[in-house]
Amino acid sequence: MPRIKIRKFLLIIIIFVCCMIVFEIIKHLYDDFNDESFYITDSSVPIILWWTPFGGEEKYTKCGNVKCYFTQNRSFMKNLNLKAMIFYGSNFDLNDLPIPRKPNVKWALFHEESPRNNLMFVHEEALKLFNYSATFSRFSDVPLTLLELPGEDELQDKSYFYSTPQKNLLMKQNNLAPVLFIQSNCDTMNDRDLYVTELMKYIAVDSYGSCMNNKKLPDGLEQNYLDKLKSREFLQFVAQYKFTLAFENANCDDYITEKLWRPLIVGSVPIYYGSASFKDWLPNDKSAIAVTDFKHPRDLADYIKQLLHDDRKYELYLRHKLSENGITNEHLLENLRSRPQYLFSIFEYYVRRFECVICQKIHKNSVQTMTRKQYNCSKPKSIFNNKEKKESSWTLMWELEACTAKLLNYWLSHNKTFNSNQFNKEKLQMYENKKCYK
Ligand SMILES: *[C@@H]1O[C@H](CO)[C@@H](O)[C@H](O)[C@H]1NC(C)=O
Ligand SMILES: *[C@@H]1O[C@H](CO)[C@@H](O)[C@H](O)[C@H]1NC(C)=O
Ligand SMILES: *[C@@H]1O[C@H](CO)[C@@H](O)[C@H](O)[C@H]1NC(C)=O
Ligand SMILES: *[C@@H]1O[C@H](CO)[C@@H](O)[C@H](O)[C@H]1NC(C)=O
């Protein structure tokens, strides 16, 4: 009897141990399988929080040989593994900030837009709040300069392209002006509308948007053309024109938008004003005409007329369409070729890339603060002389926002709780006492 009891006892112990082992194995497998629950408790995996929801699903991501956990769930604010927060510039809201700021949590700024969208960012005091950046500038951690350029193939593709003889014929048959202007946002910092008005005195410009409108859009585009900027119909429409006015709404280093890329892609020659460094990004040294190369709109008009009378000279601007190896700008090629060849969404690609760059920098403990170099915009200038505009509502806003930046920086570094009324009061006081801007 006792022997049987001992055997039974042993058997139970053995079964128990086996169960434990199997349980451990299953638990381990499950943990490996379900990365999230495993790594969240693993203090070697930094948590990165999208403060302005933008990052999509909660996820654990491998970046090279390091890992991070990305979330937009603000309850992770309390987690000791929280290492960085990412802000989307246009949604940066003073009334909704993670304050008091924790010294060991880095801030990252993703902002592809022009400063028009949030003028505070033109001031270094605001930029200094951030450690990592993805902006239009080539000097940011993830440059977004080419965000709106689909790719190398599109620059050379001829599906919309009209040859010069075809364009000459279209001008005659359809009574088209040589120059296209299409703009519906008329209140800009840089006098672009006045410039176009002046230019029109010397050369014909077809203007279809609500600014200086002088022509009706074709039927299919008449309603909401702004929603159709990427449509075949719109691109075909732009392609008919020999020249297209491409005036950005801000002057920032490397701030280049589809205003430049679209005419390049369809084979209309852009006449450009905006980023002073735009020539660094053209397919060839001669792919666009810079407004700043001309003293007066009259001189620009004279030059356009020269090109209208000389097809060979005009075609020098279309080398990316007409030559075998049409793109000679190595800097541009290098940047385009560093992106994966087939992208579901270029925007998504840059967002993911920024996430990984932040993750890697956090693992490396890299110490850095954003400066003006990563967001270098000049005060509103007039397109006529490329000089600062003294009297304009934009200039006033610009200077007022210098106070926002300065005061915000002060409040955050002194752990002040944000009070909107108080903030605006102090800001206006500083502005009136000229304490923010020289
Ligand atoms: C955020 O996380 C907390 C705790 O992990 C969880 O209870 C909550 O449901 C999450 N919220 C959302 C919106 O996912
Ligand atoms: C991040 O930026 C803040 C604000 O400029 C600065 O105080 C902090 O030292 C920076 N941290 C790192 C790790 O660079
Ligand atoms: C910003 O741009 C101006 C001219 O456009 C240049 O003189 C200045 O050095 C730039 N600043 C930085 C920090 O890159
Ligand atoms: C602000 O708070 C942080 C902790 O959240 C602390 O380390 C820092 O010293 C405080 N700064 C000031 C000026 O009180």
Question: Concise description?
Answer:
The chain has helices at 2-33, 35-40, 124-127, 152-156, 164-173, 192-200, 219-222, 232-239, 258-266, 297-308, 311-315, 319-322, 330-337, 346-363, 393-413, 420-432; strands spanning 47-50, 59-63, 66-71, 82-88, 106-111, 132-135, 179-181, 205-207, 243-247, 269-273, 289-290, 381-382, 387-388. It is of the alpha/beta class and 438 residues long.
Care to describe what's here?
Helix content is 38%, strand content 12%. By secondary structure, it is α/β, with parallel strands linked by helices. The strands form 3 sheets. It has a 6-stranded mixed beta sheet. The chain has a 5-stranded parallel beta sheet with strand order 8-7-9-10-11. Strand 5 (106-111), helix 3 (124-127) and strand 6 (132-135) form a beta-alpha-beta unit. The longest helix is centred in the N-terminal third of the chain and has 32 residues, at 2-33. The protein is globular, with a radius of gyration of 28 Å. The chain starts with a helix and ends in a 6-residue tail after the last helix. 35% of the residues are buried. Mean pLDDT is 91; it is low at 30-39. One 2-acetamido-2-deoxy-beta-D-glucopyranose (NAG) is lined by residues 100, 102-103, 414-415.
